[in-house]
């Protein structure tokens, strides 16, 4: 089971994870990133780089976090986010569930 | 202008990521990769747990570097034994140390040299089919096994011991390993962790893989598992996995996994072979019967003559640049475990390799090369003395391993005998010779 990005990423989007992914499978939306679950190889490189602990191994997702799975699957399919994030570039649009979230207050 | 010639020492993940980065940074560079074993890929082939198949998917992209027209593999050449670092430095403009960390850290307790006490690296080398790895001194029957350590290596080893042989048949582990595992009959597996549950080094994923094995019962000794608030955020899920896994009541059948936190080994007791283990924990001393002890408390640096070390595990360096006698050594770089010590995951080496390439480019203008002779001359001298495995030889080894797997009804079986590997690597050559004679 792959790793997923939980809502903790939203409006933080630090992107340290993108830089360390050996298969370049972390794609950039607008307010958060998405891991392509079919391309992820479970290596775990991204997990400790996240400053807000947003990246979670699939089986460790709590009940309230299962949305991360459907979001990743639907978003990847909708935007054809495959073949390498570097090649694909910034996609710049989020899953509808994320778009519906209120902006987190900017850190001052 | 002559291209830059680079020697990379080690064809494991750190060496191959460095090759990728150097090729990208310098479109004219020529690279020879020296590897002590007859086969490349290092810990990806001889370290990543056999059941972590998805990570092994990195192999094709990593080894693609070896098929590049400006890259040559020189396998079966151990730098420091077959050729010195100094010789490399006079045949190449740049030398990159990527030789990892091969030696195991010892426990330092009385009795640890006894039969049945094994370093994790030796067990892993054996079950990964590493060429030339001596079979560890394992008892044929093991009712109780003890693993010392709190990192992902400790969990890899524990998971291997906790598995049933048939679960591993789909992997490429050697057949002798499967038979040992099938016969050992482990009933109790103790994990001895010096740290508290709120300080462990292993990931929730690795822990979950262990505690959720079919038939496994989890017991935690010595401490209460802390509430979320007492645990740093990045470890909360790890502790939750453990909390959810703990078996209530007295488990019968299957395999019992015992976690001992805040506990360290004090002594191994027995008459030449491991019979009992004495531990010191929160509740004082305790002792129980055990037949196998695995220490998984870390790795020390590879011992390469004429390479300056800054500690027991890492080469003396400033960032990616090697330091000799207090100053940066021109044209000499280091990456991977040789630079960082044994930390990080496989992919951490990518950024390390890129740091080497960036430094090489930055230093290129001022580099006064010590190269006085050609890499070809060196490789020819080596080939006259021993079999040097190149990319074609490696391809022949892989074909031979697939043939062997087909005979046994498995996808691929690793060849662990170095002589057979070298025979497979040079098969076409000897055929040509036979035809010619």
Give the arrangement of secondary structure elements.
The complex is a heterodimer of chains A (108) and B (437).
Chain A: E1 3-5, H1 16-20, E2 26-28, E3 33-35, E4 55-57, H2 67-78, H3 85-88, H4 96-99
Antiparallel strand pairs in A: 1-4, 2-3
Chain B: E1 5-9, H1 13-25, E2 30-35, H2 42-46, H3 59-63, E3 71-75, H4 85-91, E4 94-97, E5 103-104, E6 117-119, H5 120-127, E7 144-148, H6 152-162, H7 175-184, E8 188-192, H8 204-211, E9 216-221, H9 236-245, E10 255-260, E11 264-269, E12 276-281, E13 284-289, E14 292-295, E15 299-300, E16 317-318, E17 321-324, E18 327-334, H10 337-340, H11 348-363, H12 375-385, H13 391-407, H14 418-425, H15 427-436
Parallel strand pairs in B: 1-2, 1-4, 2-3, 4-18, 6-14, 7-8, 7-14, 8-10, 9-10
Antiparallel strand pairs in B: 5-15, 11-12, 12-13, 16-17, 17-18
Helix pairs in contact in B: 1-11, 6-8, 8-9, 13-14
Distinctive features:
heterodimer, A: 108 residues, alpha+beta, Alpha-Beta Plaits, two-stranded antiparallel sheet, 23% helix, 11% strand, B: 437 residues, alpha/beta, Rossmann fold, FAD/NAD(P)-binding domain, 2 domains, seven-stranded mixed sheet, six-stranded parallel sheet, 19% strand, disordered C terminus
Molecular structure report:
The complex is a heterodimer of chains A (108) and B (437). In chain A, 23% of the residues lie in helices and 11% in strands. Chain A has 108 residues and is of the alpha+beta class. Chain A is globular. Chain A starts with a strand and ends in a 9-residue tail after the last helix. Chain B has 437 residues and is of the alpha/beta class. Chain B has 2 domains: 224 residues, Rossmann fold (3-Layer(aba) Sandwich), CATH 3.40.50.720; 192 residues, FAD/NAD(P)-binding domain, CATH 3.50.50. In chain B, β17 and β18 form a beta hairpin. Chain B starts with a strand and ends with a helix. The C terminus of chain B is likely disordered. At the A-B interface, loops of A face α8, α9 and α11 of B.
